[in-house]
Amino acid sequence: MEVQLQASGPRRLLFFLICFFSGLATCRSAVDAPPTLIDSLPGFDGALPFRLETGYVTVDEENGGELFYYFIESEGDPRRDPLLLWLPGGDRCTVLQALLLQLGPLRFIVEPYNETTIVPRLQYHPYSWTKAASVLFLDSPVGAGFSFSRNPKGYDIGEVSSSLQVKTFLTKWFTEHPDYLANPFYVGGSSHAGKFVPFIAQKISEDIEAGMTPTVNLKGYLVGNPATGEDNSYEWQVPYLHGFAVISDQLYESIMENCQGDYTNPTNALCARDLERFDDLYGQIEHAHILYKKCDYVPPGPIDPTTERKILKEETRVLKHQPTCPPMDCQSYGGYLSYYWSNNNNTRESLGIKKGSKDEWVLCDENDMPYASDIEGSLKYHRNMTSKGYRVLVYSGDHDANIPFLGTQSWVRSLNYPIFDEWRAWHLDGQSAGFTITYKNNLTFATVKGGGHSVPQYQPERGLAIFSRWISGEPL
Q: Which pTM value belongs to this model?
Protein backbone atom coordinates (compact mmCIF):
# COMPACT_ATOMS: atom_id res chain seq x y z
CA MET A 1 0.00 0.00 0.00
CA GLU A 2 1.24 3.49 -0.75
CA VAL A 3 0.00 6.99 -0.04
CA GLN A 4 0.88 9.94 -2.23
CA LEU A 5 2.07 12.94 -0.23
CA GLN A 6 1.11 16.33 -1.54
CA ALA A 7 3.37 19.19 -0.51
CA SER A 8 1.55 21.52 1.84
CA GLY A 9 0.53 25.00 0.69
CA PRO A 10 3.07 26.95 2.81
CA ARG A 11 5.94 24.61 1.90
CA ARG A 12 5.13 24.78 -1.81
CA LEU A 13 4.85 28.58 -1.61
CA LEU A 14 8.21 28.74 0.19
CA PHE A 15 9.75 26.58 -2.51
CA PHE A 16 8.55 28.81 -5.35
CA LEU A 17 9.63 31.98 -3.54
CA ILE A 18 13.14 30.62 -3.06
CA CYS A 19 13.34 29.58 -6.70
CA PHE A 20 11.98 32.93 -7.91
CA PHE A 21 14.34 35.12 -5.94
CA SER A 22 17.42 32.91 -6.37
CA GLY A 23 16.87 32.35 -10.09
CA LEU A 24 17.38 28.60 -9.79
CA ALA A 25 16.28 27.16 -13.11
CA THR A 26 16.88 23.69 -11.72
CA CYS A 27 14.06 24.17 -9.22
CA ARG A 28 11.46 23.51 -11.88
CA SER A 29 11.20 19.75 -11.56
CA ALA A 30 11.63 19.31 -7.81
CA VAL A 31 7.88 19.28 -7.14
CA ASP A 32 6.74 17.58 -10.36
CA ALA A 33 6.24 14.26 -8.61
CA PRO A 34 5.41 14.31 -4.89
CA PRO A 35 7.21 11.77 -2.71
CA THR A 36 5.63 8.46 -1.74
CA LEU A 37 4.95 7.54 1.87
CA ILE A 38 5.13 3.77 2.29
CA ASP A 39 3.55 1.85 5.16
CA SER A 40 4.14 -1.70 3.88
CA LEU A 41 6.49 -3.54 1.53
CA PRO A 42 6.30 -6.87 -0.32
CA GLY A 43 7.97 -9.60 1.71
CA PHE A 44 7.48 -7.89 5.09
CA ASP A 45 4.62 -9.00 7.32
CA GLY A 46 2.44 -6.17 8.59
CA ALA A 47 2.97 -2.45 8.69
CA LEU A 48 6.50 -1.05 8.64
CA PRO A 49 7.69 -0.09 12.15
CA PHE A 50 9.32 3.09 10.82
CA ARG A 51 8.50 5.95 8.48
CA LEU A 52 9.70 5.37 4.91
CA GLU A 53 9.50 7.93 2.13
CA THR A 54 10.77 7.47 -1.42
CA GLY A 55 10.97 9.82 -4.35
CA TYR A 56 12.83 11.29 -7.30
CA VAL A 57 14.68 14.58 -7.63
CA THR A 58 15.76 15.94 -11.01
CA VAL A 59 19.45 16.85 -10.97
CA ASP A 60 20.05 17.19 -14.72
CA GLU A 61 17.36 19.30 -16.40
CA GLU A 62 18.95 19.12 -19.85
CA ASN A 63 18.99 15.32 -20.03
CA GLY A 64 16.22 14.49 -17.58
CA GLY A 65 18.50 12.85 -15.02
CA GLU A 66 16.70 11.92 -11.78
CA LEU A 67 18.10 10.52 -8.54
CA PHE A 68 15.98 8.13 -6.51
CA TYR A 69 16.05 8.19 -2.71
CA TYR A 70 14.79 6.27 0.32
CA PHE A 71 14.29 8.41 3.43
CA ILE A 72 13.84 6.64 6.76
CA GLU A 73 13.16 8.73 9.83
CA SER A 74 15.00 8.09 13.06
CA GLU A 75 13.31 5.58 15.33
CA GLY A 76 14.24 7.89 18.22
CA ASP A 77 13.41 11.59 18.00
CA PRO A 78 13.41 12.51 14.29
CA ARG A 79 13.00 16.22 14.98
CA ARG A 80 16.24 16.36 16.97
CA ASP A 81 18.30 13.36 15.93
CA PRO A 82 21.00 13.83 13.27
CA LEU A 83 20.28 13.34 9.58
CA LEU A 84 22.72 11.20 7.60
CA LEU A 85 23.00 11.18 3.81
CA TRP A 86 24.35 7.74 2.86
CA LEU A 87 25.98 7.21 -0.54
CA PRO A 88 26.83 3.84 -2.12
CA GLY A 89 30.36 2.72 -2.92
CA GLY A 90 31.40 1.33 -6.28
CA ASP A 91 30.70 2.61 -9.77
CA ARG A 92 26.93 2.92 -10.13
CA CYS A 93 26.18 0.56 -7.25
CA THR A 94 22.75 0.88 -5.68
CA VAL A 95 22.29 2.23 -2.17
CA LEU A 96 19.78 -0.55 -1.59
CA GLN A 97 22.79 -2.68 -0.61
CA ALA A 98 23.22 -0.47 2.44
CA LEU A 99 19.51 -0.33 3.18
CA LEU A 100 18.74 -4.07 3.01
CA LEU A 101 22.13 -5.75 3.54
CA GLN A 102 24.05 -3.48 5.88
CA LEU A 103 22.78 -0.58 8.00
CA GLY A 104 19.05 -0.23 7.27
CA PRO A 105 16.09 -1.39 9.40
CA LEU A 106 15.20 -4.33 7.13
CA ARG A 107 17.14 -7.43 6.10
CA PHE A 108 16.37 -10.43 3.95
CA ILE A 109 15.47 -13.68 5.65
CA VAL A 110 18.10 -16.19 4.56
CA GLU A 111 16.09 -19.04 3.10
CA PRO A 112 15.81 -20.88 -0.23
CA TYR A 113 14.26 -18.88 -3.05
CA ASN A 114 12.67 -20.34 -6.17
CA GLU A 115 10.17 -19.36 -8.82
CA THR A 116 7.20 -20.45 -6.68
CA THR A 117 8.09 -17.86 -4.04
CA ILE A 118 6.35 -14.56 -4.75
CA VAL A 119 9.09 -12.33 -3.36
CA PRO A 120 12.02 -12.80 -0.92
CA ARG A 121 10.94 -12.21 2.66
CA LEU A 122 12.16 -9.37 4.87
CA GLN A 123 12.51 -9.02 8.63
CA TYR A 124 13.18 -6.16 11.01
CA HIS A 125 16.88 -5.47 11.66
CA PRO A 126 17.47 -4.49 15.32
CA TYR A 127 20.90 -2.92 14.69
CA SER A 128 19.80 -0.38 12.11
CA TRP A 129 21.56 2.97 12.14
CA THR A 130 18.11 4.54 12.11
CA LYS A 131 18.14 3.84 15.85
CA ALA A 132 20.41 6.89 16.18
CA ALA A 133 19.68 9.05 13.12
CA SER A 134 17.38 9.64 10.19
CA VAL A 135 19.02 8.24 7.06
CA LEU A 136 18.62 9.51 3.52
CA PHE A 137 19.74 6.66 1.25
CA LEU A 138 20.53 7.98 -2.25
CA ASP A 139 20.92 6.05 -5.49
CA SER A 140 23.79 8.04 -6.98
CA PRO A 141 25.10 8.56 -9.61
CA VAL A 142 22.45 8.66 -12.33
CA GLY A 143 22.06 5.07 -13.52
CA ALA A 144 22.62 3.50 -10.08
CA GLY A 145 19.73 1.52 -8.63
CA PHE A 146 16.46 3.16 -9.65
CA SER A 147 18.02 6.50 -10.67
CA PHE A 148 17.80 7.12 -14.40
CA SER A 149 18.16 9.57 -17.27
CA ARG A 150 15.60 10.18 -20.01
CA ASN A 151 18.39 11.02 -22.44
CA PRO A 152 21.25 8.49 -22.63
CA LYS A 153 23.68 11.42 -22.61
CA GLY A 154 22.77 11.90 -18.96
CA TYR A 155 24.67 8.74 -18.06
CA ASP A 156 27.97 10.18 -19.29
CA ILE A 157 29.21 11.53 -15.96
CA GLY A 158 32.04 11.09 -13.48
CA GLU A 159 32.94 11.46 -9.82
CA VAL A 160 33.04 15.27 -9.91
CA SER A 161 29.87 15.84 -11.93
CA SER A 162 27.88 13.23 -10.00
CA SER A 163 29.06 14.75 -6.69
CA LEU A 164 27.80 18.15 -7.81
CA GLN A 165 24.50 16.50 -8.73
CA VAL A 166 24.30 15.20 -5.15
CA LYS A 167 24.66 18.79 -3.99
CA THR A 168 21.83 19.79 -6.34
CA PHE A 169 19.76 16.95 -4.93
CA LEU A 170 20.30 18.20 -1.37
CA THR A 171 19.33 21.76 -2.26
CA LYS A 172 16.02 20.56 -3.67
CA TRP A 173 15.38 17.92 -1.02
CA PHE A 174 15.91 20.31 1.88
CA THR A 175 13.76 22.93 0.15
CA GLU A 176 10.95 20.39 0.15
CA HIS A 177 11.81 19.19 3.69
CA PRO A 178 12.61 22.42 5.60
CA ASP A 179 11.75 20.79 8.94
CA TYR A 180 15.12 18.97 8.81
CA LEU A 181 17.31 22.00 8.14
CA ALA A 182 18.00 22.44 11.85
CA ASN A 183 19.00 18.80 12.41
CA PRO A 184 22.74 18.06 12.61
CA PHE A 185 23.64 16.88 9.11
CA TYR A 186 26.31 14.38 8.09
CA VAL A 187 27.45 12.78 4.83
CA GLY A 188 28.55 9.14 4.85
CA GLY A 189 29.61 6.24 2.66
CA SER A 190 31.99 3.31 2.46
CA SER A 191 34.51 1.78 0.08
CA HIS A 192 34.72 3.79 -3.17
CA ALA A 193 32.48 6.46 -1.64
CA GLY A 194 35.52 7.40 0.46
CA LYS A 195 36.78 9.31 -2.58
CA PHE A 196 33.80 11.63 -2.96
CA VAL A 197 32.18 11.91 0.50
CA PRO A 198 34.76 14.48 1.73
CA PHE A 199 34.56 16.26 -1.64
CA ILE A 200 30.78 16.61 -1.35
CA ALA A 201 31.10 17.72 2.28
CA GLN A 202 33.57 20.42 1.25
CA LYS A 203 31.27 21.67 -1.52
CA ILE A 204 28.40 21.89 0.98
CA SER A 205 30.62 23.83 3.41
CA GLU A 206 31.61 26.23 0.62
CA ASP A 207 27.93 26.91 -0.10
CA ILE A 208 27.34 27.59 3.60
CA GLU A 209 30.25 30.04 3.68
CA ALA A 210 28.90 31.75 0.56
CA GLY A 211 25.49 32.22 2.18
CA MET A 212 23.65 29.90 -0.22
CA THR A 213 20.19 28.74 0.78
CA PRO A 214 18.77 26.54 2.06
CA THR A 215 21.49 26.41 4.72
CA VAL A 216 22.03 22.92 6.07
CA ASN A 217 23.42 22.29 9.54
CA LEU A 218 26.53 20.43 8.34
CA LYS A 219 28.51 18.95 11.22
CA GLY A 220 30.85 16.49 9.49
CA TYR A 221 31.09 13.19 7.65
CA LEU A 222 32.11 9.56 8.07
CA VAL A 223 33.72 6.98 5.78
CA GLY A 224 34.10 3.23 6.26
CA ASN A 225 36.85 1.05 4.78
CA PRO A 226 37.41 3.98 2.44
CA ALA A 227 39.31 4.32 -0.80
CA THR A 228 41.07 7.66 -1.27
CA GLY A 229 42.61 7.57 -4.73
CA GLU A 230 46.11 8.26 -3.44
CA ASP A 231 46.81 5.11 -1.49
CA ASN A 232 47.48 1.84 -3.24
CA SER A 233 45.44 -0.82 -1.50
CA TYR A 234 47.52 -3.47 -3.23
CA GLU A 235 50.61 -2.05 -1.53
CA TRP A 236 49.08 -2.60 1.90
CA GLN A 237 47.66 -6.00 1.04
CA VAL A 238 51.18 -7.45 1.02
CA PRO A 239 52.08 -6.72 4.68
CA TYR A 240 48.47 -7.25 5.76
CA LEU A 241 48.24 -10.75 4.30
CA HIS A 242 51.71 -11.56 5.57
CA GLY A 243 50.50 -10.70 9.06
CA PHE A 244 47.54 -13.03 8.64
CA ALA A 245 49.73 -15.90 7.39
CA VAL A 246 48.26 -15.88 3.89
CA ILE A 247 51.72 -15.39 2.40
CA SER A 248 54.94 -16.82 3.82
CA ASP A 249 57.94 -15.03 5.29
CA GLN A 250 59.95 -16.08 2.25
CA LEU A 251 57.48 -14.64 -0.28
CA TYR A 252 57.05 -11.46 1.74
CA GLU A 253 60.80 -10.89 1.94
CA SER A 254 61.22 -11.65 -1.75
CA ILE A 255 58.48 -9.15 -2.71
CA MET A 256 60.10 -6.51 -0.51
CA GLU A 257 63.47 -7.08 -2.17
CA ASN A 258 62.37 -7.48 -5.78
CA CYS A 259 59.46 -5.05 -6.09
CA GLN A 260 60.74 -2.14 -4.00
CA GLY A 261 57.25 -0.96 -3.12
CA ASP A 262 55.85 -1.02 -6.69
CA TYR A 263 53.22 -3.75 -6.75
CA THR A 264 51.14 -2.66 -9.73
CA ASN A 265 53.78 -2.27 -12.45
CA PRO A 266 56.57 -4.80 -11.84
CA THR A 267 59.81 -3.60 -13.44
CA ASN A 268 61.62 -6.94 -13.39
CA ALA A 269 60.93 -10.60 -13.90
CA LEU A 270 61.56 -11.53 -10.26
CA CYS A 271 58.97 -9.04 -9.02
CA ALA A 272 56.46 -10.24 -11.63
CA ARG A 273 57.04 -13.83 -10.51
CA ASP A 274 56.51 -12.91 -6.85
CA LEU A 275 53.31 -10.99 -7.55
CA GLU A 276 51.92 -13.84 -9.62
CA ARG A 277 52.46 -16.13 -6.64
CA PHE A 278 50.93 -13.50 -4.35
CA ASP A 279 47.84 -13.23 -6.57
CA ASP A 280 47.40 -16.98 -6.50
CA LEU A 281 47.43 -17.06 -2.69
CA TYR A 282 45.24 -13.95 -2.45
CA GLY A 283 42.72 -15.71 -4.65
CA GLN A 284 42.32 -18.48 -2.06
CA ILE A 285 40.56 -16.23 0.46
CA GLU A 286 37.35 -14.20 0.65
CA HIS A 287 38.60 -10.65 0.04
CA ALA A 288 35.78 -8.85 1.83
CA HIS A 289 36.41 -10.85 5.02
CA ILE A 290 39.36 -13.19 5.18
CA LEU A 291 37.74 -15.55 7.70
CA TYR A 292 34.57 -16.12 5.71
CA LYS A 293 33.80 -18.77 3.13
CA LYS A 294 35.06 -17.90 -0.34
CA CYS A 295 31.96 -17.54 -2.48
CA ASP A 296 30.92 -16.63 -5.99
CA TYR A 297 29.71 -13.05 -6.21
CA VAL A 298 26.40 -12.07 -7.73
CA PRO A 299 27.23 -10.52 -11.14
CA PRO A 300 27.63 -6.74 -10.74
CA GLY A 301 25.59 -5.86 -13.81
CA PRO A 302 24.05 -7.08 -17.05
CA ILE A 303 26.08 -9.85 -18.70
CA ASP A 304 25.50 -8.37 -22.14
CA PRO A 305 27.25 -4.95 -22.25
CA THR A 306 24.99 -3.84 -25.12
CA THR A 307 21.86 -3.99 -22.95
CA GLU A 308 19.67 -0.95 -23.61
CA ARG A 309 19.63 1.44 -20.63
CA LYS A 310 17.30 4.10 -22.03
CA ILE A 311 13.74 4.77 -20.94
CA LEU A 312 11.88 1.63 -21.98
CA LYS A 313 8.33 1.36 -23.24
CA GLU A 314 7.20 -1.40 -20.91
CA GLU A 315 8.10 -3.14 -17.70
CA THR A 316 9.34 -6.70 -17.52
CA ARG A 317 8.46 -9.30 -14.92
CA VAL A 318 11.31 -11.66 -15.78
CA LEU A 319 15.00 -11.09 -15.17
CA LYS A 320 16.90 -11.04 -18.43
CA HIS A 321 20.10 -12.10 -16.66
CA GLN A 322 19.69 -14.63 -13.88
CA PRO A 323 22.18 -13.93 -11.08
CA THR A 324 24.42 -16.74 -9.89
CA CYS A 325 22.90 -18.45 -6.85
CA PRO A 326 25.53 -18.75 -4.12
CA PRO A 327 25.20 -21.11 -1.15
CA MET A 328 22.94 -19.71 1.57
CA ASP A 329 25.85 -19.46 4.03
CA CYS A 330 27.58 -16.93 1.76
CA GLN A 331 27.35 -13.21 2.48
CA SER A 332 26.52 -12.69 -1.19
CA TYR A 333 23.24 -14.61 -0.82
CA GLY A 334 21.48 -11.45 0.33
CA GLY A 335 22.60 -9.75 -2.87
CA TYR A 336 21.17 -12.65 -4.84
CA LEU A 337 17.80 -12.20 -3.12
CA SER A 338 17.85 -8.46 -3.77
CA TYR A 339 17.66 -9.05 -7.55
CA TYR A 340 14.35 -10.87 -7.23
CA TRP A 341 12.91 -8.45 -4.67
CA SER A 342 13.82 -5.29 -6.58
CA ASN A 343 12.75 -6.58 -10.00
CA ASN A 344 9.32 -7.66 -8.77
CA ASN A 345 6.52 -5.46 -10.14
CA ASN A 346 4.77 -5.31 -6.76
CA THR A 347 7.96 -4.03 -5.17
CA ARG A 348 8.38 -1.37 -7.84
CA GLU A 349 4.79 -0.25 -7.44
CA SER A 350 5.13 -0.05 -3.65
CA LEU A 351 8.35 1.99 -3.90
CA GLY A 352 6.79 4.39 -6.40
CA ILE A 353 9.19 3.52 -9.23
CA LYS A 354 8.31 5.33 -12.44
CA LYS A 355 7.12 2.92 -15.09
CA GLY A 356 9.58 2.51 -17.93
CA SER A 357 12.41 4.20 -16.06
CA LYS A 358 14.48 1.08 -15.43
CA ASP A 359 14.42 -2.13 -17.42
CA GLU A 360 16.40 -4.40 -15.12
CA TRP A 361 17.57 -3.36 -11.66
CA VAL A 362 21.07 -4.55 -10.77
CA LEU A 363 23.29 -4.20 -7.70
CA CYS A 364 26.05 -2.46 -9.66
CA ASP A 365 25.97 -1.33 -13.28
CA GLU A 366 29.61 -0.98 -14.29
CA ASN A 367 29.58 -2.57 -17.74
CA ASP A 368 27.84 -0.39 -20.23
CA MET A 369 27.89 3.23 -19.07
CA PRO A 370 30.81 5.68 -18.85
CA TYR A 371 31.96 6.93 -15.46
CA ALA A 372 35.04 9.14 -15.18
CA SER A 373 37.31 8.62 -12.20
CA ASP A 374 38.19 12.32 -12.03
CA ILE A 375 38.68 12.87 -8.31
CA GLU A 376 42.38 12.12 -8.18
CA GLY A 377 42.50 11.86 -4.43
CA SER A 378 40.54 12.79 -1.33
CA LEU A 379 43.29 13.57 1.20
CA LYS A 380 43.24 17.28 0.45
CA TYR A 381 39.49 17.36 1.13
CA HIS A 382 39.97 15.48 4.40
CA ARG A 383 42.62 18.03 5.36
CA ASN A 384 40.46 21.00 4.35
CA MET A 385 37.40 19.80 6.23
CA THR A 386 39.19 18.83 9.42
CA SER A 387 41.05 22.14 9.43
CA LYS A 388 37.65 23.85 9.48
CA GLY A 389 36.69 21.92 12.60
CA TYR A 390 34.16 19.53 11.08
CA ARG A 391 33.82 16.18 12.82
CA VAL A 392 35.17 13.19 10.90
CA LEU A 393 35.00 9.46 11.61
CA VAL A 394 37.14 7.03 9.61
CA TYR A 395 36.54 3.38 10.51
CA SER A 396 37.79 0.04 9.21
CA GLY A 397 36.79 -3.57 9.63
CA ASP A 398 40.02 -5.29 10.66
CA HIS A 399 39.37 -8.39 8.50
CA ASP A 400 38.92 -6.56 5.21
CA ALA A 401 41.56 -7.60 2.65
CA ASN A 402 40.18 -5.31 -0.08
CA ILE A 403 41.16 -2.08 1.68
CA PRO A 404 43.26 -3.18 4.68
CA PHE A 405 43.12 -1.04 7.81
CA LEU A 406 46.91 -0.67 7.61
CA GLY A 407 46.60 1.62 4.60
CA THR A 408 43.74 3.62 6.11
CA GLN A 409 45.62 4.04 9.38
CA SER A 410 48.67 5.21 7.41
CA TRP A 411 46.95 7.99 5.46
CA VAL A 412 45.05 9.18 8.53
CA ARG A 413 48.35 9.45 10.34
CA SER A 414 49.92 11.26 7.35
CA LEU A 415 47.66 14.24 8.02
CA ASN A 416 50.06 14.93 10.94
CA TYR A 417 47.52 16.10 13.48
CA PRO A 418 48.44 16.13 17.18
CA ILE A 419 46.89 13.28 19.15
CA PHE A 420 44.00 14.18 21.44
CA ASP A 421 43.14 10.71 22.78
CA GLU A 422 45.84 8.03 22.53
CA TRP A 423 45.32 4.64 20.87
CA ARG A 424 43.10 2.50 23.07
CA ALA A 425 40.44 -0.19 22.96
CA TRP A 426 36.78 0.71 22.70
CA HIS A 427 34.31 -1.66 24.33
CA LEU A 428 30.91 -3.26 23.95
CA ASP A 429 29.38 -5.42 26.66
CA GLY A 430 32.61 -5.29 28.63
CA GLN A 431 34.76 -6.62 25.79
CA SER A 432 37.03 -4.83 23.34
CA ALA A 433 35.14 -4.25 20.09
CA GLY A 434 38.04 -2.60 18.28
CA PHE A 435 40.64 0.10 18.76
CA THR A 436 40.56 3.82 18.26
CA ILE A 437 42.61 7.01 18.27
CA THR A 438 41.36 10.60 18.18
CA TYR A 439 43.31 13.53 16.79
CA LYS A 440 42.83 17.21 17.29
CA ASN A 441 40.64 18.81 14.63
CA ASN A 442 37.89 16.32 15.54
CA LEU A 443 39.26 13.40 13.49
CA THR A 444 38.66 9.89 14.87
CA PHE A 445 40.02 6.65 13.43
CA ALA A 446 38.69 3.32 14.67
CA THR A 447 38.87 -0.36 13.86
CA VAL A 448 35.99 -2.78 14.34
CA LYS A 449 36.99 -6.23 15.52
CA GLY A 450 35.73 -8.90 13.17
CA GLY A 451 34.52 -6.35 10.64
CA GLY A 452 34.91 -6.87 6.91
CA HIS A 453 34.49 -4.71 3.83
CA SER A 454 31.32 -3.09 5.15
CA VAL A 455 31.38 -3.14 8.91
CA PRO A 456 27.60 -3.22 9.56
CA GLN A 457 27.18 -6.22 7.25
CA TYR A 458 29.62 -8.39 9.17
CA GLN A 459 29.40 -6.82 12.64
CA PRO A 460 25.99 -5.13 12.86
CA GLU A 461 25.92 -4.66 16.65
CA ARG A 462 29.42 -3.19 16.78
CA GLY A 463 28.68 -1.12 13.70
CA LEU A 464 25.65 0.46 15.36
CA ALA A 465 27.59 1.02 18.59
CA ILE A 466 30.43 2.92 16.92
CA PHE A 467 28.04 4.96 14.77
CA SER A 468 25.56 5.87 17.51
CA ARG A 469 28.28 6.88 19.97
CA TRP A 470 30.20 8.98 17.48
CA ILE A 471 27.24 10.78 15.90
CA SER A 472 25.85 11.64 19.34
CA GLY A 473 29.19 13.09 20.42
CA GLU A 474 29.99 10.40 22.97
CA PRO A 475 33.49 8.91 23.33
CA LEU A 476 33.84 5.54 21.64
A: 0.89
